[in-house]
Amino acid sequence: MMVMVIVMMIMMVMIINDGDDTDNSLTSIHQLGYDLNQVFEIEPTAENRDEFKYAFPTPCTVRDVLTLYLDIQGPIKQSVLKHLVPYVTDAKQLEWLKNVISQSSIIKQLVDENNTSLFDLLIHELDSCKIPLVDFLHIVPYIQPRFYTISSSSSCHPDIVHITISITAYKLKSGKVFTGLTSGFIKNLQPRSSKCRVFVRASSFRLPKSIDTPIIMVGPGTGLAPMRALLQERGYLKEIHGKIGLNVLFFGCKNQSVDYIYRDELENFEKSEVLNHFYKAFSRDSTAKEYVQHLMIKSEISPELMQLIDAGAYVYVCGATAMGADVMATFQSIVQKSKNINPIKAVAYVKEMQEQGRYIQELWTA
């Protein structure tokens, strides 16, 4: 057995085992000098042992760290490329790399046209780059967890957690089809045989303590996920108590025939009067693009929303960041018009709702 100890400021890497490479899928990584079957162990140095956090399980094989933990297939970033400079041995490749680093437009072009990753560069344009594993672990970013809002009520489904995912897939300028790392991975999981590491953390979406309190939900696209969970819980509470507060939902998608998710469930919520007011916007089904915020501002709807807010309604918004900003601006506009106050006071009104926990958002960058 070969034993190698590398002492680092942040961590210590010990190569504790080696073996034969039988995996052809990452054969090209051999040009970096790595053995995919080699096992290494991470240990903190003495001075940072107490606060050290492990980025992945240890001991670990080189194959596992490259395929499961390091984001070598993500789009290249200027901050990462700068760290490669000392390891490129070919003069022409070094000049090319420095030119790329100095012009962000080149990086954007590489990403936009072919979603060029660090892995792509290391096996093609920068094949003279030789990085020791211990340095590679510091330079390359780790795959970050993706957060999905639970779309089911634990009262209705105590043993199962539902999540709602939109598969990220689009054609690049080069003609290559890019598929999202996590959404593509989850799509390919096989029931009862595949495994996936998950964890659950507390959500900011919680129903009011009183079942009589009305709620207003705005969830276009997969932003519908937590609203489905809230409606399931409200339906469960209605069965127990006989009545609940008003439930209002604004849902939007591009095409009714394609993106109208959970349609049967939502219509059943309407029939059972769990969902009292259901407003839908299908932005590509009409000449004038209509979004959820356009529905909210309509003269026959906005007074109803203000009445509910005055009655103590909670507002829940989930979706893309841009949508969230538009919806908040719409609520501020409704408050301003209804109460005949200036924009500054309307902004303060909605901010106070946030501070009271009555205006809750879960947004993501699209």
Could you describe the 3D structure shown?
By secondary structure, the protein is α/β, with parallel strands linked by helices. It folds into 2 domains: 4-139, NADPH-cytochrome p450 Reductase, Chain A, domain 3; 145-366, 3-Layer(aba) Sandwich (Rossmann fold), CATH 3.40.50.80. The protein has helices spanning 62-69, 78-82, 91-102, 104-114, 118-123, 133-139, 181-187, 225-241, 256-259, 263-271, 292-296, 302-310, 321-339, 343-355, and strands at 4-7, 11-17, 39-44, 60-61, 169-171, 177-179, 215-218, 247-253, 277-282, 314-320, 359-364. The protein has a 5-stranded parallel beta sheet, with helices on both faces. A 4-stranded antiparallel beta sheet has the order 1-2-3-4. Strand 1 (4-7) and strand 2 form a beta hairpin. Helix 13 packs across helix 14 (343-355).
Distance between the termini: 48 Å
Total of domains:
2
> What level of helicity do the residues show?
25-40%
Q: What is the CATH C-level name of the largest domain?
A: Alpha Beta
Overall shape:
elongated
In terms of per-residue confidence, which ranges show pLDDT below 50 for 5 or more consecutive residues?
Answer: 1-11, 18-25
What structural category characterises the helix and strand content? alpha/beta
Number of strands: 11
SSE pattern: EEEEHHHHHHEEHEHEHHEHHEHHE
In CATH, the homologous superfamily of the largest domain goes by the name Nucleotide-binding domain of ferredoxin-NADP reductase (FNR) module
* Total number of helices: 14
- CATH level-3 fold name of the largest domain: Rossmann fold
Strand order of the largest sheet: 9-8-7-10-11
The major beta sheet can be summarized as:
5 strands, parallel
The name of the CATH architecture of the largest domain is 3-Layer(aba) Sandwich
Strand-residue fraction?
A: 15-25%
Radius of gyration: 26 Å
Summarize model confidence as the mean pLDDT. Answer: 88
